[in-house]
Amino acid sequence: MSWTNLRNSELKERAARVIPGGMYGHESTALLPSDFPQFFQRAEGSRLWDVDGNEYIDFMCAYGPNLLGYRDPEVEAAVQAQMERGDTLTGPSDVMVTLAEQLVGMLSHAEWAMFCKNGTDATSMATVVARAHTGKRKILVGRGVYHGAAPWCTPGPAGILSEDRGHIVYYRDQDPQSLADAVKAHAGDIAAVFATPFRHETFRDQSEPDPTFAREARRLCDIEGAVLVLDEVRAAFRLSRDGAWAAFGVRPDLTSIGKVIGNGQPISALVGAENMRNAASSIFVTGSFWFSAVPMAAAVATLKIIRESDYLERLERMGQLLREGLAAQAVAHGFGLRQTGPVTMPQIFFADDPEMRLGYFWTAAAVRRGVYLHPYHNMFMNAALSEADIAQVLQATDEAFDLLKAQDRTQLPLEHPPVRGRLERAALLSA
């Protein structure tokens, strides 16, 4: 079947009449080439099908939640079994207690767990717990780091008041000295320091987890009496079966976890150390669907696979095969390629491509060949990917490199224009 986007185009036109902006949030394709589909109809394993029936090997994994493969059989069985018993009830199911026990048993820094729906829920809950624990106001965050879409942290400035961020203080992400300077400037009034395990923001190269930064963040929080919050909404269980900083001997006070724990079911979590328990017990946070049993049953099944299978080793192996294959292709075709961060969360940029003409053209060419890569957002490996999948991906990317090499780099087709305006918009979103 040849690639087409007619149905997708029709749906985008219909959506524009009834949905503000045609689509909103991080899954909007407004910043992507027109070849990228906005609407999908089904998924299985490592594959995704759009509304036109085009099949893709998917490296976005629903922007992270697909860890084991779409519709993993064990997780699906747990979902179906719980649906027959009930989902959103007047009170939680007993599966909530089981899930909390299992999550606490797996994470060396966790003594308790609370559940919600999205990463934003979990990070926002962490700010409230930290302030309840310390009685202080300031929340220190890395500049440009994404912690969600609540007023205190959303990258979009529209509708946000200065008062919404009146006690948010910024430091240079992953920079121990910048963090130390921010702590010194606001000593005595710091409720929490937020950090991600490594730099993974859009339109930027990623970093690797840095033990120096992790240990300095812990040291500064201990001196100041502030709460160390590790935002693992993107990275949880893609770097380690434990916390991302556990290998460094660094124990955060609170950790926000999202995306993966239900393998696509809507659930996230805040876990914490024993000294945070009383503060977590004192706050009022809730949601009509936060206690739904089906996502919790999915999470129990997902955590079992995380504990008992070689899923992580497969993620790493497939990620390394992809990285090595793309690097060799880039050299063979005469392009510089930057692949940064952990191999389980690929980020790919072309060198000497300030307007991202090359990256946009290449990823769009890959999409038309059945491989969903992203030009500016970090991607995600899932455990359903096989060596045969990677071989198919590399065939498509090799063809995309061939096509790109044949272009005049300054005269790329109009459907792939310079993205300066898009970059300016993205800069606003990450400011």
Short synopsis of the structure:
The protein is α/β, with parallel strands linked by helices. It contains 12 helices and 13 strands.
Strand content: 5-15%
Look at the helices and sheets and give the structural class: alpha/beta
Lateral strand order in the biggest sheet = 4-10-9-8-7-5-6
What is the end-to-end distance?
43 Å
Report the CATH C-level class of the largest domain.
Answer: Alpha Beta
Number of domains: 2
H and E string: HEEEHHEHEEHEHEEEHHHEEHEHH
At the fourth level of CATH, the homologous superfamily of the largest domain is: Type I PLP-dependent aspartate aminotransferase-like (Major domain)
- Count of DSSP-assigned helices: 12
Which fold name fills CATH's third level, the topology of the largest domain?
Aspartate Aminotransferase, domain 2
- State the shape: globular
Which value, in Å, is the CA radius of gyration?
22 Å
Flag low-confidence runs.
Answer: 414-431
Largest sheet: 7 strands, mixed
